[in-house]
Amino acid sequence: MQITVPKNVRTIIETLEKNGFEAYAVGGCVRDSISGTVPNDWDITTNALPLQVKSLFRRTIDIGIEHGTVKVMMGRDGYEITTYRIDGDYEDNRHPNGVTFTSDLLEDLRRRDFTINAMAYSDRSGLVDPYHGREDLAAGIIRAVGDPGERFSEDALRILRALRFSARFGFEIEDATKEAIRQLAPTLSNISAERIREELEKLVLSDNPDRLRWAYELGVTAVIFPEWDKMMECEQESPHHFTDVGDHTIEVIKYIIDNYSDIPKENARILRIAALLHDIAKPVKKFRGTDGADHFTGHPEEGEKMSEIFLKRLKYDNNTTDRVKKLVRYHDDCPEPTYGATRRFLVNLGRDNLDDLIRLKYADLYAHTKYRWDEKMHTLKTFEEMSRKIIDDKDPLTVKELAVNGNDLMKEGASSGPALGQALGRLMDLVLDDPAMNDKEKLLGYYRGDGS
Length: 452
Ligand code: ATP
Ligand code: MG
What we know:
Bound molecules: adenosine-5'-triphosphate, magnesium ion
CATH topology of the largest domain: Hypothetical protein af1432
Number of strands: 15
Number of domains: 4
Shape: globular
């Protein structure tokens, strides 16, 4: 087995070897190279101790020397070199209470999580693959190294990593590994919000969002995202829907994957999280109407609140939280088809959220039955056309964009204070109905005659 190793990595490995040490590329970079994808980064493992590594390279950064990791800089690129190690006993299903260095590569590979991640490679020794990771990679299987129950008990984060890698590569999870996930899912309560956020987000950003269903079936989301279990369990007896809320959500994400794969990364991130949460409040808002169908009146408003609670619990940043909340809040509404109403809708939504909202609305619509399809599509297209024209025409949507400001009004005799804000608000209202009014003289003329 031959892997093409980048020049810098080859130089690092050869330097270590020339000085009497062993060195290998290891983990994700070996996995990705074998499966024919370009690795994000190259990690190196060696029997040299951290100080020995530091003595051999000109530019190094101590990034985790107590865990055996030194970063070697080659030009602008950094490479993490970690001494072969054995993790000590684990506390709290998460933290090894220390690491010990070892001189045996096989011991280092044994502490790694999955067979596909436990391979090492060097040009000198070829592929070192004691757990048959290459076979699992070819067969599409996530399998724990050694006893899965032990491995997940050591570190519960591995439970989420198993689902995440399975979602990223579209792999199955081997039976015993799956069973151990089911048994040990409750220990995920020991994992920090930040780590759960990272893993859950990677899962949602993957090409296989149906793994969210697996996460439910294995009892994982019951611990980290109980709102999701409610969604999976929320049937919709309605002509608009053919599945429960959870599976509908997965369909929406699939539509996004199939149709919006080329949008900027940050939009893709916000859009997927919003898609995940858009119907979060349906389970609590569900009621059976006199027509015999289920209704979910008020779910966007409640969904905005529940999304905020969820995103704060996972310690999401404010910008993500604010944008996702807006998309959840407005995913189900279109304004009445007038320019005035559409401009006001955009004021509430925020201009910058429009593209993502339109994408979410199409994705949501396509994940519905064809009931009243033409009417719904027409409403959405009308909204899209009108709102895009408003944005293209740069119609003012905020007080800042008005042709007059508070100073201009004070020159006209207005006093500062709440009344000034109200006067500007009235001018804003005027301009929202008629952008042609956004002219200094016209607005001042209106203000003079406003009288109130
Ligand atoms: P990615 O492409 O997502 O970076 P990766 O396999 O490189 O995938 P990392 O999280 O960067 O994943 O970890 C690098 C390697 O370290 C893994 O391939 C695995 O061998 C090992 N590893 C990482 N986290 C754990 C863990 N929690 N338990 C055991 N081994 C782990
Ligand atoms: Mg990596």
